[in-house]
Design goal:
heterodimer, A: alpha+beta, Rossmann fold, OB fold (Dihydrolipoamide Acetyltransferase, E2P), 2 domains, six-stranded mixed β-sheet, five-stranded antiparallel β-sheet, 9 helices, about 25% helix, elongated, disordered C terminus, B: mainly alpha, MetI-like fold, 14 helices, about 0% strand
Chain lengths: ~375, ~300
């Protein structure tokens, strides 16, 4: 078990800076996800911790010891790769036992530990098979057993679930999470899948373009994103982002004026999560929209609407759609849940918008007919 | 609109499509073997006249030819030494080292090792004659002389060693090319995993690289063994099989019997013998090396 500290760690390949100065502390026993789109530097971070890459500058500390110059094999980390990276010519037993070859572990203790690790991930019936004879899920369990058999201080998971089918992914997600909390091992998972990150991790490091965009619990990232990138990246279906302009205590968003909870002036982006929009079966409300697409998602219905904001996505709980395509419905939203971002994309905390006070105010700009009106 | 059922029997078509291949195979592969078999049972000489059909050649080959055991021994030494020391050993070393160094340097060295294969055999043979020249002007003697060593006459004193080295220098590139691509196809994650699992350089080589090299190794062994058994151009060019028959391998012996001694029919019988040996050796290797596995699913997971 170990605490991990990154102190102004950077990584460059030649002229390309893949990791900007990065500061980070991961507590002993914590389960942390590094989340971000491909090319954001998340795997680089993982490989820096594993010792496969050396940082260009900065310090990596395990339990307050600098490990910059410690070889990968002496760091006592376990890793599971996206491709599992099992040795194709070795049996499951030999694959799991492989890390023990290089430690002075007596034969019978090694056997015992291999059996325990195999049992932990339920591959103890497959010990004589070779990787080629295993399914993807089984290979992944073997890779996990191999990572755990040496009782590592840190467990690193590099997109471990992305090669599994959807059902298996959900099962493995829960299993890895349970395993981690049972073993209490400091664990880092790299993923581009926000569901994986939010379901498994205690904390999420959201990365973008070699920078840490935000670190926080899944809920913090979801409800209080620091910037427009995090707001857009976290949440599925994604947040509605509408360009607008704040004019003191009001803001023109799309073709609609909203009242602001605080004074602000300048270009803004208004963010509204699909599930924070409520649809009302009456067009007699302050704001209406026309349903243009209905996508049933099982226990939720995903609507696409043409509104004065432009195109808007709304998510409603329910198994059957209450509206039909072409229908005009009333719209309201939870003012407390609204988000504003400045021209640079940074969150404007404490700034909310409400729709109700602007019902009959004339729109102070040249009005273009909305799509909905054109259609009529 | 189209309601006609598809025709079931179209016997003429497959034959038509196979015809080009059948013709090529018959003319260049099957016919020569058949002609060789026929000639082997005649008394054909340089005048190409066939006076009688006889088993003489076969009997001579199996019993009366006192040179043949030595030729077989020479062939065995030549093939195994060249195969294991150079075609496989050196080839593997080249593949491993040229993939371990920076890419441009590795490519440069691989290119260098491919040069003899690209140059005409005669040129390469002449080069080796100069290298092994017994006078102080030969390359080996120039170097040896500078080190104060006595003059060497490899072509006369160690002809077998000379042809093994000369052939090996050409042959190593084959395994090098194939194994280089094999090493390249090992997923990078496997190397990373091994390092994190605690493997050092040697262990990575032993546990990640070598296992991947085994399947192509089987193919290279069989292919190169056959190739070494049946080709003789470098030997003919460098030592002419001499002195006397000291560096004459079986294939060269066939050539020398047929075209130097003019015993065409006996040469044909010897060639038949070589074919039998070649097939036997290949089948044996196939069995021993478990070649079937090499044609099974790939050993390397490709994602």
């Amino acid at each position: 078990m170990a605490k991990i500290t990154l102190d102004k760690v950077t990584k460059s390949w030649g002229q390309t800076e893949v990791l900007r100065p990065m500061d980070l502390t991961i507590d002993d026993g914590e389960f942390v996800a590094i989340l971000g789109p491909s090319g954001c530097g998340k795997s680089t971070t993982l490989f820096l911790l594993a010792g496969l890459y050396a940082p260009t500058s900065g310090q990596i500390l395990f339990d307050d010891h600098t490990v910059n110059r410690v070889d990968a094999r002496d760091r006592n980390v376990g890793i599971v790769f996206q491709s599992y990276a099992l040795y194709p010519h070795l049996t499951v037993q030999q694959n799991i036992a492989f890390p023990l070859r290089f430690k002075d572990v007596p034969k019978d203790e090694a056997d015992r530990r291999v059996r325990e690790a195999a049992a932990l991930v339920q591959v103890d019936k497959l010990l004589e098979r070779r990787p080629g004879q295993l399914s993807g899920g089984q290979q992944q369990r073997v890779a996990l057993a191999r990572a755990l058999v040496k009782e590592p201080n840190i467990l690193l998971l590099d997109e471990p679930l992305s090669n599994l089918d959807a059902t298996l992914r959900i099962a493995m997600r829960a299993e890895i999470k349970a395993l981690q909390s049972r073993l209490g091992i400091t664990t880092l998972i790299v993923t581009h899948d926000q569901i994986e990150a939010t379901t498994m991790a205690d904390r999420i490091i959201c990365m973008n373009n070699g920078n840490i965009a935000q670190i926080g619990t899944p809920d913090e990232l979801y409800r209080s994103p620091h910037d427009i990138f995090v707001a857009g990246f976290i949440g599925s279906p994604p947040i509605n982002l509408i360009k607008g302009e704040a004019r003191g205590d009001t803001a023109l968003v799309g073709e609609r004026v909203l009242s602001l909870s605080a004074i602000y002036r300048g270009a803004v982006t208004f963010g509204l999560r699909p599930e924070d929009i409520a649809l009302i079966a009456s067009a007699d409300t302050a704001m209406t929209g026309k349903v243009s697409l209905i996508e049933p998602m099982g226990r939720e219905i995903f609507y696409t609407l043409q509104t004065p904001f432009g195109r808007l996505h709304a998510l409603e709980t329910g198994e059957t759609a209450r509206f039909v395509i072409g229908e005009t419905v009333g719209l309201t939203f939870n003012a407390q849940r609204t988000l504003f971002f400045d021209a640079e994309g940074n969150r404007l905390p404490g700034l909310n918008a409400d729709i109700t006070t602007t019902i009959h105010e004339p729109v102070p700009s040249v009005r273009h007919p909305s799509h909905a009106e054109v259609a009529q | 609109m189209i309601s006609q059922p598809p025709r079931r029997h179209r016997p003429a078509r497959p034959l038509l499509y196979l015809m080009p291949a059948i013709i090529v195979l018959s003319v260049f592969f099957i016919a020569p073997i058949l002609i060789d078999i026929v000639i082997a049972f005649t008394n054909m000489g340089v005048n190409l006249k066939v006076e009688k059909f006889t088993f003489d050649n076969v009997l001579r080959m199996l019993g009366r030819d006192s040179r043949l055991p030595m030729v077989l021994m020479t062939t065995f030494i030549y093939v195994t030494a060249t195969l294991f020391l150079f075609n496989i050993g050196l080839g593997a070393i080249l593949a491993v080292t040229t993939t371990a160094v920076p890419e441009r340097l590795g490519a440069f060295f691989r290119g260098l090792w491919l040069l003899p294969r690209m140059s005409p055999a005669v040129l390469y043979g002449v080069l080796w004659i100069w290298v092994a020249d017994p006078t102080p002007y030969g390359l080996i003697n120039q170097i040896g002389g500078a080190l104060g060593l006595p003059l060497l006459n490899l072509r006369n004193d160690q002809p077998l060693l000379l042809i093994v080295i000369a052939n090996g220098m050409v042959g190593a590139s084959f395994a090098m090319v194939i194994m280089t691509s094999t090493i390249r196809s090992i997923p990078a994650h496997l190397f990373s995993a091994a390092r994190i699992d605690g493997a050092g350089e040697w262990s990575v080589l032993r546990h990640v690289v070598l296992p991947a090299l085994l399947p192509p190794l089987r193919f290279i062994t069989i292919y190169q063994a056959l190739s070494l058994m049946t080709t003789y151009e470098y030997i003919l060019l460098i030592t002419r099989g001499g002195p006397v028959y000291d560096s004459t391998t079986y294939a060269l012996y066939v050539y020398r019997r047929a075209f130097e001694s003019g015993a065409y029919a006996y040469g044909a019988a010897l060639a038949l013998g070589l074919m039998v040996i070649g097939v036997a050796v290949t089948l044996l290797q196939w069995r021993m090396a478990g070649m079937k596995q090499s044609f099974a699913a790939p050993k390397i997971e490709v994602l």
